[in-house]
Amino acid sequence: MANSLHNQRILALVFMVVVTVFNVYGVRVVALINNIGVIFHTSGTNATVGTFLIAMFMSLFVIYGFDTAATLAEETRNPRRDGPKAILYAIVGAFIIGGIFIWATLMAVPGSLASGVKGALGPAAVT
């Protein structure tokens, strides 16, 4: 009963709300949580330069996309209209690329997905 799909959905929803509240009220709390997560994520795995670069790819893509969209939108003829559209396109692009990244990671899990979940395989352990 504790591992039911309903409980997992409730827990996921609670975590999404908590993270959203953290993001709304400031970046310092999110940065602290991120730094703690980085410290504890590498324990027990063989973290290599390749692992670091793979983990860094998606966040850099998103940040670069937002910054480029906002910066280049200022140079258009109608920045008030084109700026928000460019940022929304960057969000959609990050969503698509992130989905492809997650799908590729799930497809690369050795064995079955169930054994990967039982073994708590993270992206660092997937080859």
Distance between the termini: 33 Å
Radius of gyration: 18 Å
Residue fraction in strands: under 5%
Helix content: over 70%
Question: How many strand elements?
Answer: 0
Strand and helix order? HHHHH
> What does the main sheet amount to?
none
What structural class results from the helix and strand content?
Answer: mainly alpha
Number of domains: 2
Query: What would you call the shape?
Result: globular
SS element count, helices: 5
Question: Which descriptors apply to this entry?
Answer:
mainly alpha; 5 helices; 2 domains
Gist of the model:
This protein is mainly α. The protein is 76% helix and 0% strand.
Give the arrangement of secondary structure elements:
Elements: H1 5-25, H2 27-41, H3 49-73, H4 79-107, H5 113-118
Helix pairs in contact: 3-4
Structure description:
There is one protein chain. With 127 residues, the protein is an all-alpha fold. The protein has 2 domains: 1-41; 46-127. The chain is built from 5 helices and no strands. The chain has helices at 5-25, 27-41, 49-73, 79-107, 113-118.
